[in-house]
Design goal:
Structural class of chain A: alpha/beta
Radius of gyration of chain A: 20 Å
Helix content of chain A: 25-40%
Number of strands of chain A: 15
Number of helices of chain A: 14
Largest interface: A-B, 36 and 36 residues
CATH class of the largest domain in chain A: Alpha Beta
Number of domains of chain A: 2
Shape of chain A: globular
Strand content of chain A: 15-25%
Order of helices and strands of chain A: EEEEEEHHHEHEHEHEHEHEHHEHHHEHE
Distance between the termini of chain A: 21 Å
Strand order of the largest sheet of chain A: 6-7-8-9-10-11-12-13
Oligomer: homodimer
Chain lengths: ~375, ~375
């Protein structure tokens, strides 16, 4: 087995408690040695490997960990987006449009579209990615979407409870029974997680609880969408069930924040969604100051957030959610890792995966200082993890 | 001379009054023939040329016209940016930091740094670019910066009146005399435009008027920075003097808007600056509805807006300034052209320069629908114009 050294790193962001200094564990003039996709040594510039990659004195960070996407879908919703920008409010109802397109697409078409998006995400510096289903919304298509997703990442999430499909409108409880029954049975072999959209117009607390508990019985880990479009029971339910993460969290009461802070559940923010739906940005400062663990994810999907740009998410989190640059960088890397229950990604230290990005910039501050500029010059990863 | 055809264009945005339909003059399934850098024919797919470039059914737009940058400088101001994101307000004082670094840099260093930024701007789809001086702030260095800039673009702007330099603090009128005298004489041979920063803490209306009138006497066109950090006399002065453009326009009274609407002066918005200084976004909707002509530019500079991403500017203009997608696309192309007094760029029609960008997307809506994604797949230009 041959070792590779990423050398001449101007500034290395490790996110490690034991290596480097400051809130993101930086080392100036560093190098990193890895072997078979795993980091074996982190130290000053000049460490030795069989192969050498020159970082040209630029900044190197852990690859982004994107813990929330809906990447397998067909069609787009540019029309809905355009009318939203002209003033029509977002209510999530467009999910049914993507469901129709996804059901109609062949598996080869879904694989090809997903592959192109995974490639785009890789260029944006994403090296670990979660993918949810939720555009099948029947037994066959949920399983099919998850089978496609599992060809790209181990972090697959069954989300039959994304929205009640057309054919079950007015019969939400019947649909929940299907999700918890045959659909779960077909989906579980291809999924690591289960998720539900706990929001007015989607699923209430009892329905969401039923779905997540069924998932737990089938051996899946739990996550939840909540508190996106208004106050609601999502955050409290996620804490009650011990979800790894509750996602969106735009509207939180003091009680929500207290409960989250006392739990192991991560609050995952999706700032590009608030951007693309023209919703208010969540007050991350308030949650972080109260002790809540946070992550940032892209929520890449064709309705509310059609972007793979984690860099933009980081910039928005700082500009509009009042996070520090260091908090935002951590949230997009090690924060996402915690939201996925992963210890092997999000940090650069021995034993972690050799998932790293080289920025065309001297420091991580430039991710926010240079908004919109595609700064990720190189993404190093053995495979999307 | 050989003709090239850009063929198989899925959606062509012409911005032409006579070609195509709708507010940006679109044609589906189009091709464009150009010769010696000038467009000679626009029509349906399948026009004939000696060489053929396949747009692969994607969207093609006029190259972006970036009418406001400060691209020639040395150093960066990531530290100032970081402390601003932590709550320190922006007052423009950091211009002096860049001035010190720029004066200390060799001409070769300035050329190399500018070339890298021009290349980045080209990848972002910018095919016409204005560059201001304003980090020399003495006779020798203002002329030197403009000489460097004129190696990259004909649209160079003398902006000795950017800020009063350290050595003239407390003696603004003496500095204005220098700007209008020896500095203008040294700068004018390398400049097409003159500009001043009319704002509290920089130059007042009389001082700005003196600078612009001196510039006019030296044969330069007029532009002005105004109304960025608060209400002020900038807009009215720009209209009074017949400036081609007044830039920033964040704070405007009803009278400012009325005066602009009745004039030929363009209001140039710089949304990435409002993003990076955490200032409020201007209400472009109000100005456009009153009949004001608008442009969008990046204001690329190391202090208040270190980006070349016109796509992000367009997205911000829609999301946060309430422009329609079509208005924002026009503002970033033909709007910028008007702000520079140019008829040969910003549109795709016979006689215009063959400056075009191919988006990795089926329609121009994706510039806003896919925020942060580097969608410009290819930039076609004979040279930065």
């Amino acid at each position: 087995m041959s070792a590779t050294v990423l050398d001449n790193i101007g500034q290395l962001v490790t996110n490690s408690d034991g290596i480097g200094t400051g809130p993101v564990g930086t080392i100036e003039n560093a190098s990193v040695v890895y072997e078979n996709g795993v980091i074996v040594e982190v130290g000053p510039a000049g460490l030795i490997g069989d192969e050498r990659i020159d970082a040209e004195a630029r900044c190197v960070l852990p690859g982004f960990v994107d813990s929330h996407t809906h990447l397998v879908f067909a069609g787009d919703r540019a029309d809905e987006f355009t009318s939203r920008m002209a003033g029509r409010p977002y209510d999530g109802g467009g999910i049914r449009v993507t469901t129709a397109a996804t059901r109609a697409a062949s598996t080869d078409e879904l694989v090809a579209a997903t592959a192109a998006r995974i490639e785009e995400a890789g260029r944006a510096g994403i090296t670990t990615i979660e993918i949810k289903s939720g555009y099948g919304l029947n037994v066959v298509d949920e399983a099919r979407v998850l089978e496609v997703a599992s060809g790209f990442t181990p972090e697959t999430t069954f989300m039959g409870a994304h929205l009640v499909p057309e054919e079950f409108v007015g019969r939400t409880d019947d649909y929940v029974d299907l999700v918890c029954g045959d659909m779960l049975s077909a989906a579980a072999p291809h999924a690591r997680w289960i998720d539900a959209f706990c929001e007015n117009g989607a699923f209430d607390a009892d329905q969401s609880r039923a779905v997540l508990e069924a998932g737990r019985s089938a051996g899946l880990g739990l996550r939840l969408h909540g508190n996106q479009l208004g106050h609601g029971p999502g955050v409290m339910l996620a804490v009650e069930l011990g979800c790894a993460s509750v996602d969106h969290c735009t509207y939180m009461t003091d009680s929500d924040i207290e409960a989250l802070a006392a739990s192991d559940t991560v609050a995952t923010y999706l700032p590009a969604t608030d951007f693309s739906t023209r919703q208010p940005y969540p007050d991350a400062r308030r949650a972080i100051d109260a002790g809540v663990s946070v992550a940032i994810a892209t929520n890449c999907n064709p309705g509310s957030s059609y972007t793979t740009s984690m860099s933009l998410c980081v910039a928005l989190a700082v500009r509009d959610m009042l996070m520090t640059i260091e908090e935002a960088v951590r949230a997009a890397t090690v924060g996402g890792a915690k939201a996925l229950g992963r210890n092997d990604v999000g940090r650069i230290e021995p034993g972690c995966r050799a998932d790293m990005i080289v920025l065309d910039a001297p420091s991580y501050h430039h991710l926010v200082y240079r908004p919109g500029v595609p700064l990720v010059a190189r993404t190093l990863t053995s495979a999307m993890s």
